[in-house]
């Protein structure tokens, strides 16, 4: 078993070494198609990050009647927190709000204009799903203690629509691109197999079993896939960090994706796609070639 | 050992390559299949190792029906039949040694056993000096000898040769045929398809003549022409 595995691997390596230009071309083809695929994954990750960023800035302000007692406020906070799609509820009492207001607008002589604090007690509610902002705001208006509700419904609707369309477009484009990448890689591997169709026939004529013929090709497909993926990933790492750097110089606060988790996930996907398609392509093309000779 | 029973082969284009072939070949026999190109010699040989299948009829080797073999069993049949191809069918990106060793590798022989048997057979065909060359670096006669070495390296009971001298000069042809006689003497059944009159008339063996897909003559120690 181990002897066979070592033999198949050495066969694959010999074949890669001896096939020269066709091997370079197929690795390059796979690298380029995976790089394009990766660029697209990065773009769509950034778009979804962007919409999430804006969604997370959306909030609802619930202004309470002055008559509301402290224990009622506590009860309300618990009820709001229990509502679906609510991520965070923060109470802002009127004194704090007033101080903040005065701090934000120091040029206005507020004390001379208004004698007393005119601001109400309020809740700031941050949602986990910005699409529900309007319906939740409407619901909140129904509470006895609620004086008024301020929401960013109009903006929220636009952002929601934007994110929905970009998500649909993203899914369509990524699946098209996945399909294209699949075809390119499988066909590239097929070319390397077809180039050696005669060899496969000869192997069959001297009594090689299908699996004996297939394994070296599968290992070869695996190695080509790994090489193509790694080159594509190296390219993407450099290109993306260069891009992020340039972008931050010009628009410093723009929310680009640079957490390692997301990026590593994308690179992992590329590696998996590249290697599995290499293996799959080899398996498919050898099987097809082999069948012709029995 | 080999029984061909009422074989008929019709190609999809309607051409009848073989029609009602019956043949019996005993163990350790040496048989020439003679006839013009297109007479059906190669088709018949190809059927013996299942590179082609008959339209009707069947072939038995050691009482095993080739018609009933599944695709999975074909490799094992082929390991018991060495084939010498007219166009050599060597793996271009492997050395002489690797080409011959391949026939043993498919049988999962150990490395040391492979080395021993390959070295031995390369000595027999006189190519031990060139075992690290690639086929393209060798002459036609040398390539044919690699092909022979590969066909006999695992001592198969049957050896088939399709026009083994087809593209060789007379002297080299003579050497190759001497080699085949030598192999036949080592308890191997040899079937040679050829239209080399000089050879057939010189090294006298059983002659089976094929014409238009039928056997028209079968005689011991025969000549190329009756």
Alpha-carbon Rg of chain A, integer: 31 Å
Helical content band of chain B:
25-40%
Structural domains of chain A: how many: 2
Strand order of the largest sheet of chain A: 2-3-1-4
* Beta-strand residue percentage of chain A: 5-15%
What is the class of chain B in the CATH system?
Alpha Beta
CATH architecture of chain B: 3-Layer(aba) Sandwich
| Record field, number of beta strands of chain B | 10
- N-end to C-end Cα span of chain B: 27 Å
- What profile does the largest beta sheet of chain B have? 6 strands, mixed
Low-confidence stretches of chain A: none
Q: SSE order of chain A in H/E notation?
A: HHEHEHHEHEHHHH
Distance linking N and C termini of chain A: 26 Å
Task: Quote the average pLDDT of chain B.
Answer: 93
Please, how many helices of chain B? 7
Class by SSE composition of chain A: alpha+beta
Radius of gyration of chain B: 17 Å
Helix content of chain A: over 70%
Account of the 3D structure:
The complex is a heterodimer of chains A (294) and B (226). With 294 residues, chain A is an alpha+beta fold. Chain A has 10 helices and 4 strands; from the N terminus they run ααβαβααβαβαααα. Chain A starts with a helix and ends with a helix. Chain B is an alpha/beta fold. Chain B has one domain (29-39, 68-219): P-loop containing nucleotide triphosphate hydrolases (Rossmann fold, 3-Layer(aba) Sandwich), CATH 3.40.50.300. Chain B contains 7 helices and 10 strands. In chain B, strands 6-7-8-3-9-10 form a 6-stranded mixed beta sheet, with helices on both faces. A 4-stranded antiparallel beta sheet of chain B has the order 2-1-4-5, with helices on one face. In chain B, helix 6 links the parallel strand 7 (158-162) and strand 8 (189-194). The radius of gyration of chain B is 17 Å and the shape is globular. Chain B starts with a strand and ends in a 7-residue tail after the last strand. Chains A and B meet through helix 1 and helix 8 of A and helix 2 and helix 3 of B.
